[in-house]
Design goal:
Distance between the termini: 29 Å
Structural class: alpha/beta
Strand order of the largest sheet: 2-1-3-5-6-4
Bound molecules: NADPH dihydro-nicotinamide-adenine-dinucleotide phosphate
Helix content: 25-40%
Number of strands: 12
Oligomer: single chain
Length: about 280
């Protein structure tokens, strides 16, 4: 990439964003197609988010990913939003076109594409969704759209009830209530980010038949237990890559090959000691 007067700028905006892998693989996608564009991280403090979003528009930024904690704000700020983002209630992708801001949610697409690598046909299957935060909303939306029967558990029970009231799914008080009835187990909480986070349920109850997904990018205690049990498992990297590939498609109309973005992340990880 040659920085020039006509270089297009894309970005990720959030707080924090310094550990984000999105710049690594989105830049590899632009390189792959020989597009003169750069994708940069903008870490914006909450008190500055409004002026920062207006700034993206003023500066002629072409597209943005939005991450925690600004996905809801991005949706309400945009001029137009696709129906999925409206139902989910948050946007992780913005496209700036002819002075207007268009908002999309690609988390649910990324999640489904990743899950379908483990289970190509989802209709009629049963899943336990751990968590009721922002990512859980997008995941629940995708699962219900595919005809999956979803049980939701969340640390704060009322939040799970609210989520199920708005989108659907059944709420359970303890994951153990349904562990024997479900085939898919998804951790969408931020528990597991730290090694000493207490387990979300008794992981010794995992069975070989379970397909275990943790949307955190690293090996969590849940993923480790699934591995030990011999279950099919998946960490959050594929979801991240597929949601990013979908954002890239929205911005450019181009489908970047999965191998290109995955290679970029693996090369980056090998070159860095990450804690
Ligand atoms: P939110 O802050 O919106 O939600 C956090 C969720 O985690 C809530 O359900 C919260 O429960 C739960 N939680 C937090 N701490 C604990 C704990 N110690 N024990 C049990 N539950 C806990 O965050 P998001 O939903 O946006 O993100 C969650 C995780 O998913 C993050 O780690 C993020 O990095 C990852 N993520 C990965 C993506 C990918 O592409 N792979 C995409 C988006 C997110 P409560 O309601 O009780 O507070």
């Amino acid at each position: 990439m040659n920085l020039r007067g006509d270089t297009q700028v894309y970005c990720i905006i959030g707080f924090p964003v310094r550990h984000s892998l999105s710049p690594v693989f989105q830049n590899s996608a632009f390189e792959h197609f020989g597009i003169n564009a750069v994708y940069v991280p903008f870490e914006v403090k909450p008190e500055n988010i409004k002026v920062a979003l207006e700034g993206l528009k003023a500066l002629g930024i072409r597209g943005a990913n939005v991450t925690l904690p600004y996905k809801e704000e991005a949706l309400s700020w945009a001029d137009h939003a696709d129906k999925h983002a409206k139902i989910i209630g948050s946007a992780n992708t913005l496209k700036f076109e002819n002075g207007a801001v268009h908002a999309y949610n690609t988390d649910w697409v990324g999640f489904l594409k990743a899950l379908k690598k483990l289970l190509p046909e989802l209709r009629g299957r049963r899943a336990l969704l751990l968590g009721a935060g922002g990512s859980a909303r997008a995941i629940l939306y995708g699962l219900l759209l595919e005809g999956v029967e979803v049980y939701i558990w969340n640390r704060t029970h009322e939040r799970a009830l609210r989520l199920s009231g708005e989108l659907g799914g059944k709420v359970v008080k303890k994951p153990e209530e349904v562990i024997d009835r479900v085939e898919i187990i998804i951790n969408s909480t931020s528990s597991g980010l730290k090694e000493d986070d207490p387990p979300l349920f008794d992981y010794s109850l995992l069975r070989l038949e379970h397909k275990v997904v943790d949307i955190i990018y690293r090996e969590t205690p849940l993923i480790r237990s699934a591995k030990e049990k011999g279950c099919f498992f998946q960490d959050g990297l594929d979801m991240l890559l597929y949601q990013g590939m979908e954002s890239f498609r929205i911005w450019t109309g181009l489908e970047v090959p999965y191998e290109v973005v995955r290679e970029a992340v693996l090369r980056y990880k090998h070159g860095h000691i990450r804690t």
